[in-house]
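B., you asked whether I could sanity-check this one before it goes into the benchmark set. Here's the sequence:
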Amino acid sequence: MISLLLKWFEENVPKDTLPPANFLDKGWIEKLQKFVEVNYLNFKDENSLKTIENLLSSKPTEENVLLSSYFLGEFFIHTLDGEWYYDQNYGPSIKNLGGISNFNREPYQISNSFASNPQNNSIINHYQAIAATVKNLQGNRK
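And here's what the prediction gave me:
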């Protein structure tokens, strides 16, 4: 039995969850600003999430996934509140979404998952579910 489990773990090695670059490093802010300008993105407009989905569907390059992740994190911060931090398992992440302690999300995971399988994923739906959860949790605190 144990040998079967060991064999399963050998065959099912988890994929690396970290993004290939830490987009919180200094050089990325300029790249993000250019990305926002070129793609006419707005940190408070959900239509920008559709633009990101279209971009990742047509050009799922590593750089587009990283820049979309950075944009998505900033979008969370601008619309829901929260702050960047570096998670050892998931890389750049947003913590305390909606001011709710330990309610954290990983924009890279969301963007990369969409880019890998756009037919079965939606960044917009993901965001809307997070926003609804924040609203519900904030309502329960009152």
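One thing to flag: The helical segments are 2-11, 28-38, 47-58, 62-80, 107-116, 123-141. Otherwise nothing jumped out at me.
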